[in-house]
Design goal:
heterodimer, A: 111 residues, 4-stranded antiparallel sheet, globular, B: 113 residues, 7-stranded mixed sheet
Chain lengths: 111, 113
């Protein structure tokens, strides 16, 4: 069945550092791909999405490109801020019509 | 405001009691979902619904019951709460007109003592 694998955390960075959180997926067909963010004590917010190969989703300085050849959707940001500290979830919707999540990666940004 | 709302946001209940978590969305999305989030397990799908009067089991349905008599409401009932059901519960709905984007409620924190 469909699945998502993302790098284990926590990821600890200094402010203004470059961020990459790896995400790879297994799915039949052409899934839609998402990144969600969860701030402490809050629900999940959609960060960005991509619905077809080579699409780039972007929001709040974060970017991710749908790479079908490598089945990846890595999240990147050029300069992280303390306020970016949160848990990030990679997810897909495939043929099952259900949202399948990765296990989440905790990001901690230090001043 | 339009959106998806859950109630109660916080609940403490005793083992064996019945608890219902409410979920309401104003978008008229056909698909709705219930997830639970636990440390070490990420988000797991409990039940989902493709439309009013259509529901199906997810990964972890045991001990839960759902109904969907109206498109906008999708309540989740714990028939006889157990401590293992202490968790954060998220309701969600899917916008099939926008790349199947799923939007989440703010969560219901449930503690079973």
């Amino acid at each position: 069945g469909d699945s998502v694998t993302q790098m284990e955390g926590p990821v600890t960075l200094s402010e203004e550092a470059f961020l990459t959180i790896n995400c790879t997926y297994t799915a039949t067909g052409y899934p839609s791909l998402f990144w969600y963010v969860q701030y402490p004590g809050e629900g999940l917010q959609l960060l960005l999405k991509a619905t077809k190969a080579d699409d780039k989703g972007s929001n709040k300085g974060f970017e991710a490109t749908y790479r079908k050849e490598t089945t990846s959707f890595h999240l990147e940001k050029g300069s992280v801020q303390v306020s970016d500290s949160a848990v990030y979830f990679c997810a897909l919707i495939g043929s099952s019509y259900k949202l399948i999540f990765g296990s989440g990666t905790r990001l901690l940004v230090r001043p | 405001d339009a959106g998806i709302t859950q109630s109660p946001r916080y609940k403490i209940t005793e083992t064996g009691r019945q608890v219902t978590l409410m979920c309401h969305q104003t978008w008229s999305h056909s698909y709705m979902f219930w997830y639970r989030q636990d440390l070490g397990h990420g988000l797991r799908l409990i039940y989902y619904s493709a439309a009013a009067d259509i529901t199906d089991k997810g990964e972890v349905p045991d001990g839960y019951v759902v109904s969907r008599s109206k498109t906008e409401n999708f309540p989740l009932t714990l028939e006889s709460a157990t401590r293992s059901q202490t968790s954060v519960y998220f309701c969600a709905s899917k916008d099939t007109n926008s790349g199947n984007t799923i939007y989440f409620g703010e969560g219901s924190w449930l503690t079973v003592v």
